[in-house]
Amino acid sequence: MSHYYVGEIPRDQRPSDGVVLDFDSGEESLDRMLDRKASILSKNEGFSYKDMTPVQRVFLTHYWCPICKLLPLYALDLRHRNKVRCGKCRNVISFPGKGKYGKIKKKLAFLLWQERKGGEDVQR
User: What angle do CA 89, 79, 46 make, to 5 degrees?
Assistant: First the structure.
């Protein structure tokens, strides 16, 4: 015979072991990959990624979609170089190579795309 009340959820009486997080899965998270690639690329371009303010880092590592708003560069769909699309809503976005971080941002986006897609080339 059951000994719980109506609406009560029966729970296991054993103590919980807690949540186990596996950080050694071998795969790097996309955010860490983005930070690592941005740091390497900025060092090659002659400035320090770590010395940048948080706002400057966001401008370097994110893009603006008019529908989805601010998204990280790894969410871009770069199958066609001239028609860059938002990876979330598939809307064509403007992705200019101008501005303070434009050229570096574009290089970073293509580096991330190639690493995620296993060397798949971008079509013109």
Answer: 100
DSSP character for 82?
Answer: T
Report d(CA 72, CA 79) in Å as an integer.
17
**Inter-CA distances, 77 with 18, 37, 107, 113, 114, Å:** 38, 18, 14, 8, 11
Contact 97/106 with Cβ under 8 angstroms? Answer: yes
Is residue 21 predicted with pLDDT exceeding 60?
A: no
Q: How many CB atoms lie within 10 A of CB 83?
A: 12
Helices (H), the chain: 30-45, 54-61, 102-116
Res 26: pLDDT:
53
Q: In whole angstroms, give the CA distance from residue 30 to residue 9.
A: 38
Where do the domains of the chain lie? 30-116
